[in-house]
Amino acid sequence: MSSKPSIDPTWTTTLGKALSPRSEWPDKDELLDVIYWGKQVLSLLVGLVFGFTPMTGFLGILSYIVISSVVAQHYVTKFQSVDEDEVGGFWELSKEGFGAAFATYMVTWITVYTYTMTE
């Protein structure tokens, strides 16, 4: 009487699905986790670019918010071909991981900007 064990997705299989277009996402929380971590990486990259640019003020914050929202939306609807309503719609995609990603962006942006301006 052996039953088939439930297979939890590991980070390597999830990463493989995340980097492959039109992957199957039976668990929408797994896709939202990918969006969360993708925003973390994007925040780090945008923070580095804006810090070295050097971009300042409200324009830097507004630009980050737009970039973060548009990239998440594009990733889900175009790259993964998932209907955004299946994962909660545009606002849910925009909000997913926003607080933590915004903090990553701000720390990176301020640190890089401060470092480049002191030299």
TrEMBL record:
Membrane-spanning segments: 97-116
Keyword Endoplasmic reticulum on entry: yes
Name this polypeptide is given: Rab5-interacting protein
Subcellular location(s) per record: Endoplasmic reticulum membrane
Keywords carried by this UniProt record: Endoplasmic reticulum, Membrane, Transmembrane, Transmembrane helix
InterPro entries linked: EMC6-like, RCAF1
Family to which this protein belongs: Belongs to the EMC6 family.
Membrane topology term: Multi-pass membrane protein
Keyword Nucleotide-binding applies: no
GO cellular component: endoplasmic reticulum membrane; mitochondrion
Primary location class: endoplasmic reticulum
GO biological process per UniProt: mitochondrial respirasome assembly
